[in-house]
Specification:
Blueprint: H1 5-9, E1 14-18, H2 23-36, E2 40-44, H3 50-60, E3 65-69, H4 74-83, E4 88-89, H5 95-103, E5 108-109, E6 111-112, H6 115-123, E7 128-131, H7 134-137, H8 139-147, E8 154-157, H9 166-170, E9 178-180, H10 186-190, H11 194-206
Parallel strand pairs: 1-2, 1-9, 2-3, 4-5, 6-7, 7-8
Helix pairs in contact: 2-3, 2-11, 3-4
GO molecular function: 2-dehydro-3-deoxy-phosphogluconate aldolase activity
Enzyme class: lyase
Protein name: 2-dehydro-3-deoxy-phosphogluconate aldolase
């Protein structure tokens, strides 16, 4: 299956943002997220286990569409691709990452937080962006403001998004999904409380704005 940024952001209204210290734990988490109804996850490259976790999930549980987050430079991008990532999320946008994305086949979804960054993305035919850190740069209000001058740009707000405010974001026409860590608690993973995670996922999806 060939994915583009639009199809990635439409897999699920909630994209779990995952930080892992152990690749096996990440595989277990992928299975319970999938069981709960979410078939996409972003594993951040904030820990040494990130790339190994992506590779393990890609190889052993291909039903989960796994991608890399916190992709900050060209080497991160290439490492993500080599590990089996189906997409990459970056917290920001740079010309070097944009250029690398043109050399790669997996979707690049850059992080933006200003009109100028959106214009840079648009100039380079990138129409799907991560708003990051969403709650600190204006949240719902800034996304409403961006809707006027940038009607063709779609967003995945991440950073400060949770069960209590996710529907405020999802109600916006320019938001396709939200990213968050509340459905993939590192604490619950370490404690192997996987049934609780599945329950959280199911409860979160049940209240998603239809």
């Amino acid at each position: 299956m060939i994915l583009n940024a639009n199809s990635v952001m439409k897999i699920s209204p909630i994209v779990p943002v995952v930080v892992v210290d152990n690749a096996n734990e990440a595989l277990d988490l992928a299975k319970v997220l999938y069981e709960g109804g979410i078939s996409v996850m972003e594993i951040t490259l904030r820990t040494k286990a990130g790339l190994e976790a992506i590779e393990k999930i890609a190889n052993e549980f291909p039903s989960m569409i796994v991608g890399a987050g916190t992709v900050c430079d060209i080497q991160d991008y290439r490492n993500a691709v080599n590990s089996g990532s189906k997409f990459v999320f970056s917290p920001g946008i740079t010309m070097s990452l944009i250029q690398e994305s043109k050399n790669q086949t997996i979707p690049f979804i850059p992080g933006v937080s200003s009109a100028s960054e959106i214009m840079l993305a648009k100039e380079n035919d990138l129409t799907h962006c991560k708003l990051f850190p969403a709650s600190l740069v204006g949240g719902v209000d800034i996304l409403k403001a961006f809707g006027g001058p940038f009607p063709g740009i779609n967003f995945c707000p991440t950073g400060g998004v949770n069960l209590n405010n996710m529907n405020d974001f999802l109600a916006l026409d320019n938001v396709l999904c939200v990213g968050g860590s509340w459905v993939s608690s590192s604490k619950l993973v370490k404690e192997k409380k996987f049934k609780e995670i599945t329950k959280i996922v199911q409860e979160s999806l049940a209240v998603v704005l239809k």
